[in-house]
Amino acid sequence: MVQPRRKFHEDLDWLEREITTMGELAERAVGAAVDALSTQDVARCDQVIAGDDAIDESYIEIERRILDIIAMQNPVASDLRLVSAVWHINLHLERIGDMAVNIAKIVKVTEDLPRDERVISHLREMADVVRPMIRTAMEAFALRDLELALKLPSMDDPVDRLNRGLYGQIVGLAPDVRLLEWGIRMNVVSRQLERCGDHAVDIAEQVAFLLTGEFREFTDASHGPNAG
Amino acid sequence: MESELSQTIEPVSVTHIEVAHHEPVSTGRPVIFDVQELSVYYDDFRAVRDVTLAVRQNEITALIGPSGCGKTTMLRCFNRMNDLIDTARVEGRILYHGVDLYDHQVDPVEVRRRIGMVFQKPNPFPKSIYDNVSFGPRIAGFKGNMDDLVEQSLRKAALWDEVKSKLKESGMALSGGQQQRLCIARAIAVSPDVILMDEPCSSLDPIATLRIEELMRELVSEYTIVIVTHNMQQAARVSDRTAFFTVDVREDGQRTGTLVEFDATERMFTNPSDGRTEAYVTGRFG
After folding, report:
1. Cβ distance B55 to B224 under 8 Å?
2. What is the pLDDT of residues B101-120, one digit of tens each?
3. What are residue A114's phi and psi, to 5 degrees?
4. B272 at the A interface (CB within 8 A)?
5. pLDDT band at A35, cuts 50/70/90?
6. Partners of residue B194 on adjacent β-strands
7. In B102-221, which residue ranges form alpha helices assigned H by DSSP?
8. Distance CA B254, CA B280 (A)
9. Among positive and negative, which fits the CA dihedral B216, B217, B223, B227?
10. Are strands B224-228 and B194-198 parallel, antiparallel or unpaired?
11. Rounded Cα–Cα distance for residues B14 and B137 (Å)
12. Percent above pLDDT 90 for chain B
């Protein structure tokens, strides 16, 4: 088949490759941050923080290329939907990268505090769901697999449950003030992981839009069971 | 003999045509042209096959597609310009306000007065600006105030301010974009119901093109417009509905234009239903 807009299609291919790489980096950053939490590995935390620069560089370059494409190539139809989807996914992945950094920084500032292994195990359990969520959303994008994308909301349910469930455990740490301080920090970690799950769901929404041309939110925060 | 078209549609003055208003056949505005399984032949060669679509009132309908897909042939069917080619014939029907446009009793001259045309290359008469605009109404026996009609027509074509001090100068002395707007003023002067445009901007620079596009959006409040364009972005910018035609090549090499998809322009350029439309608008065509 003749492709008269070769440069444009090469740009789209580049976007797709770059966002895929960025997805891998963001997912690994979350994994590394939670591993560093488990093992209290400050050096690993520094690697996560430094590694975010690569994600940010990708984010900025993708943003720039998308603006160029829109200005110069007038994408339409599935090309337009791809550009729009990548534009959104780019922001979600950049935020996931930032959350991994937040977790790594919390690990560093809590280094000298006592810790509770049950809470650590709880957070690991959350990460063990969130990481596959990010991978699944990006795989649905790469494979253009709507069925896979539609699995994300149900994958997110245990993350939300675990996030809510952690609160009681942290309250239980109250008699020990220093342990409580650590626990409050861990509540923020939990919140970061829960947000990562939400971003993965949002990425899947973009995949569904790319494939169907219809945009709809999978979950509605203002009307769902936990609204208000 | 009085044409069937004249009998069916109430006779009206040249400056104001009352058109029959039909109930829309589906959601949207009333249908002006109801094209039903239309095929166009030149001798035995079938140039266009089985086109069914509806052109609606006060909308811009764009016909797009690669060269040889039959979009200009289709456009010329709307005011029976193909009648001027001896070997051309049509099968199927085009109902114009419910009247069969190709009924033998319909007067093609009357058709072309109601359904005006603007061509690819501006083609003003070698006459003054004023005479270019007044020519049609004069031929049609217009008895009103010609100065007012010329001014109104030039104003509607967004040309008045540029030519009001030189109405007696030749239309040929204007720039390309001005000449095209003069041709639009000339078409408007006979109070058409529909304006057909065959690649009206293909010989114009980008600024003149944008002026014509802006003018089209102004004119559509009063007229129904059908435009053939090679410029997909132009179709996306100005039209309400878009018809995408392609060329089917038979084993014996005969090429026939077919309508692939006809839908709201927004949908055609964001989420077309047919893979051939997708391939064409995204530039992945062979």
Report:
1. yes
2. 999 999 998 999 999 999 99
3. -70, 160
4. yes
5. very high
6. B115, B224
7. 108-114, 129-139, 146-156, 160-163, 176-189, 206-219
8. 21
9. positive
10. parallel
11. 7
12. 79
Residue in B233, B278, B286 closest to A77 by CB = B278
The separation between the first and the last C-alpha atoms of chain B, rounded to the nearest angstrom, is 50
Å from A69 to nearest chain B CA? 13
Per-residue b or e along B222-234, where b marks 16 or more CB atoms closer than 10 Å to that residue's CB = ebbbbbbbebbeb
Q: Is A227 exposed, middle or buried (0-12, 13-18, 19+ CB in 10 A)?
A: exposed
Strands B88-96 and B60-64: unpaired
Written as one letter, the residue type at B79 is N
Res. B50 pLDDT band, cuts 50 70 90: very high
Tokens 């939110």, residue located:
A217
Nearest-angstrom CA–CA distance, B55 and B40: 18
Tell me how far apart the alpha carbons of residues A197 and A131 are, in angstroms, rounded to a whole number.
8
Give the distance from CA A172 to its chain's centroid.
29
CA–chain centroid gap for A73, Å, is: 30
Contacts of B103 (CB under 8 A, 6+ apart): B4
A-chain CB neighbours of B270 within 8 Å are 76-77, 80-81, 213
Contact B270 A76 (CB under 8 A): yes
B283 vs A: CB within 8 A = yes
For the four alpha carbons of B112, B118, B120 and B126, in that order, the dihedral sign comes to positive
Residues forming a β-bridge with B197: B118, B227
Q: Please report the pLDDT score of residue B254 as a whole number.
A: 87
| Distance (Å) from the alpha carbon of A30 to chain B's nearest alpha carbon | 35
* CA distance linking residue B276 with residue B14, whole number of Å: 43
Q: Which helix (H) or strand (E) holds A138?
A: helix A117-143
User: How large is the average pLDDT for residues B37-53?
Assistant: 94
Residue the block writes with tokens 């032949």: B41
Q: What is the pLDDT of residues A83-140, one digit of tens each?
A: 999 999 999 999 999 999 999 999 999 999 999 999 999 999 999 999 999 999 999 9
In this prediction the pTM is 0.81
Length in residues, chain A: 228
Q: Which two tokens stand for residue A215?
A: 């945009």
- Those residues with Cβ within 8 angstroms of residue A2's Cβ, 6 or more apart along the chain or in another chain: B285, B286
Containing A37, the helix (H) or strand (E) segment is helix A6-39
* B259 secondary structure, DSSP code: E
Note the ipTM here: 0.74
Q: Residue B247's closest CA among B270, B280, B271, B218?
A: B280
Q: Are B234 and B155 in contact (CB under 8 A)?
A: no
Residue A90 CA to residue A62 CA, distance in Å, equals 7
